[in-house]
Structures are given as C-alpha cells and as structure tokens.
Amino acid sequence: MDLTHLDRLEAEAIHILRDGVAEARRPVILFSGGKDSTVLAHLAVRAFYPAPPPLPLLHVDSTWEFRELLAFRDSFAKSLGFSLLVHVNEAGRALQLHPARDGARYTQIMRTEALKQALDAYGFDVVFGGARRDEEKTRAKERIVSVRTIHHSWDPRRQRPELWSNYNWQRSAGESLRVFPLSNWTEEDIWTYVRARSVALAPLYFAATRAVVARAGALIVVDDADRMIWRDGDAPAARQVRFRTLGCWPVTGAIESEASTPAAVMAETRRERLSERQGRVSDEGSLEALKREGYF
Fold first, then answer.
1. Based on CB atoms within 10 Å of each CB, which residue in 162, 203, 206, 255 is the most buried?
2. Higher pLDDT, 140 or 56
3. What are the φ/ψ torsions at residue 176 (nearest 5 degrees)?
4. Residue 128 in contact with residue 20, Cβ under 8 Å?
5. Please, which residues bridge with residue 286 across strands?
C-alpha cells in the first residue's frame, strides 16, 4: 500500500496506542486541551473504533486554565465518548499561588505534584501524552516508551533502545510508563492532520480580537481581570491574536495573527522560525530538571 507521510504517522501512533493499552493494567491519556493532546485523543478514538475509547482522559487543572479551554475540554470529552477525570492539588490551591509571581514553585506544586497525586490516586500505569520531539530539546531525549520510577521521576540515562518499532513495555512493581505516540510528529504535521481529519481544536488557536497586555516581550491575554497581577501603567489593548501553545493564561503569550482557519495557521507555521514554546513566559528554568521530578 502506498501510504502518505501523514498515513504513516497515523498508523505508527495507532499501533503504539493499541500496544500500550493491551499491555496496561490501567491506561490513561493526559489531556490538556491543547492541539497535541486533542489529536492524540482523536487517534485513540480511531484506534479502537467502533468500541468506545477504553481509557479515560485525565486533566490536571492548575486552576489558571483559560476559560475557553475548560469549556472546550468538557464538550470535547462528551462528544467523543471519553470519561473525563479532573484533578486539582487542593493543598496547592489553598496556598493561592500565582504562576507569574511564584514561578517554579507554582509549576512544581500545581503541575508536577498534582500529576503525581492523580497517578497515585487512580493507579495508572501507562500514561499516554502528546509531547513531540521537535517541541523542545529535552523532549527529544525521550523514547516513545519511557520508564518512570515508583516516585514518577525520570532518568535520561535509563532510556531503553527502541529498534524497528519494537517497544519495551516491561516495568517493575511500582514503576509506570510515559508513552508518546506523537514523538515523530512536527508542529506542521499536527496542523496538517487537523485540517485533513477536520479535528476541532480549542478556539484559542485561531485569531480573534482579545484584550492583551505586554509581559516580558509577550502578549498576555487578560482571561480574568480580577485575578490579573496589574502593574503601573497597564492598559489592556484589543489585538488580533492567537496561540501556538497553551499553558496557564498569566504566563502564556499570544502572537499577533490574522489566521482564523487551519489552512491559514499552517501557512503561518511554515514561515515561523522560532519554537512554539517561545510564548511560555514560565519556560525560564530547565525543562529537563522538571521532567526528572515528574513533570510531563
């Protein structure tokens, strides 16, 4: 069969999903509502059709998610027949941490520790995620099937060889696996797939008029004015913007854009020379250090 590049990527991802679910005791898809995890969830539906998805979606809610993203998350899970699990680190919520003010401490408590709490509470042993190797240099160190210790930590030196699409699903008692079926995809591949398969994405990925303020060279959308840390001289301005990546709204920068369709976004992506994570104001530390502690 003469497969296209996109067909091959899709077939590889479906193969990984089927293998992983077959080897898992309790599998789960980590779902952020972003474009990569949305495509991954669509692939899971295709992998097991006509049966309903045999694994739930897990969203670790930092309490600083875009409101549009939360609405998309709920409607998306319902429309595709997924069970949706949402976990918040309630002890962290009580600390009233702010991503723009508390930086690494906030990420550790509301993202990393929250994820580890959820994995322990539900006993998930095979955790699928939408990370791609082209996204960031630390991501490129990951194998498709990556072992985590009983404490969910990651050691790059313990990476297993993966030859000819043979994946090692073995794990010792207490260990778990992080699995990345989209490892070999690029940002352009994701958008090509979204367009080819008519995948619905969170509206934040498409240009619209939004109120923004400048922060560290980025345009921050004022998602909730009451929770915004305001600075002297701040004057929100209406700009035509969209997002290439989605994180906590006070530290995720938008880009000026007129692209309101997948085709227009693809055209912009081909011209872009900077990483899509350039808009993450919070990406000042080492992503590898975070991943060693259990960050996804």
1. 255
2. 56
3. -135, 170
4. yes
5. none
Residue that the structure tokens 């990406």 belong to: 283
Angle between helices 5-23 and 187-197 (to 10 degrees): 90
Can you name the residues that pair with 242 across neighbouring β-strands?
A: 255
Query: What would the pLDDT profile of 221-268 be if each residue is shown by its tens digit?
Result: 999 999 999 998 888 999 999 999 999 999 999 999 999 999 999 999
CB atoms near residue 195 (< 10 Å):
14
CATH 3.40.50.620 domain extents, the chain = 5-190+285-293
Burial of 148 (0-12, 13-18, 19+ CB in 10 A): buried
Domain 5-190+285-293 has CATH 3.40.50.620: yes
pLDDT tens for residues 86-122?
Answer: 999 999 999 999 999 999 999 999 999 999 999 999 9
Q: What is the mean pLDDT of the segment spanning 144-159?
A: 88
Tell me the backbone φ, ψ of residue 236, rounded to 5 degrees.
-55, 135
Encoded tokens for 290 = 């975070």
- Residues facing 126 on adjacent strands: 27, 177
The pTM assigned to this predicted structure is: 0.91
Helix segments in 230-280, DSSP class H: 262-271
- Tell me the longest C-alpha to C-alpha distance in the chain: 63
Report the SS3 class of residue 264.
helix
Cα–Cα distance, 87 to 41 (Å, whole number) = 18
> Residue 248's closest CA among 38, 34, 65?
65
